[in-house]
Design brief:
This protein has one domain: Beta-clip-like, CATH 2.170.270. Helices cover about 10% and strands about 35% of the residues. The strands form five sheets. The chain has a three-stranded antiparallel β-sheet with strand order 1-2-3, with no helix packed on it. A three-stranded antiparallel β-sheet has the order 4-10-9, with no helix packed on it. A three-stranded antiparallel β-sheet has the order 5-7-6, with no helix packed on it. A hairpin with a 3-residue loop joins strand 1 and strand 2. The radius of gyration is 15 Å and the shape is globular.
Length: about 160
């Protein structure tokens, strides 16, 4: 079942986005309410909390630095193998990778920030380039991971 074909309703509204909830699956989506061009800063973010280990709710910012995002609603940016946004953990900015129109779901490539994932999963993004099982960058081939924009931390880990 492709998640983009399910009916949703708005559960919260923010400056540039809305959280949509898919009633059938209880799955949250972050949907754009503004236009962004590739390279635009969508939002600054910071660490509301820092953990030593990854969880499904953290973004990796360093070797033992896994952050809970602030603003918290950014946690609803789901994975896609064809992402439109990127968490730059060096500048602490969410950046558009391509044009994002109002109504588009914000997505990012989870291994772009995660060396090891606490909970690998089967992808349902439906993209032609879907890689199947989503796991940390450590477990992906150099050829595959090289097709994506990666955080400075992940790039450093790949070259060491």
């Amino acid at each position: 079942m492709n998640p983009s074909t399910l009916a949703t309703f708005v559960s919260a509204h923010y400056d540039f986005a809305e959280i949509h909830l898919q009633a059938q699956t209880n799955h949250h989506l972050l949907i754009a309410t503004k236009f962004f061009e590739a390279g635009d800063v969508i939002s600054p973010f910071s660490a509301k909390e820092v953990h030593k280990s990854p969880s499904r709710y953290t973004v990796q910012a360093g070797e033992h630095e896994h952050i809970i995002l602030d603003p918290e609603f950014l946690q609803y940016i789901n994975h896609s193998c064809n992402p439109n946004s990127f968490f730059n953990t060096t500048t602490m900015q969410l950046v558009a990778l391509k044009t994002i129109n109002p109504g588009d779901e914000f997505t990012f490539f989870y291994p772009s920030t995660e060396w090891y994932m606490a909970e690998p999963f089967e992808c349902i993004c439906g993209e032609p380039n879907c890689i199947g099982t989503i796991k940390g960058a450590k477990e992906l081939s150099a050829e595959l991971i090289g097709q994506y924009k990666l955080t400075d931390f992940i790039q450093q880990k790949r070259s060491s």
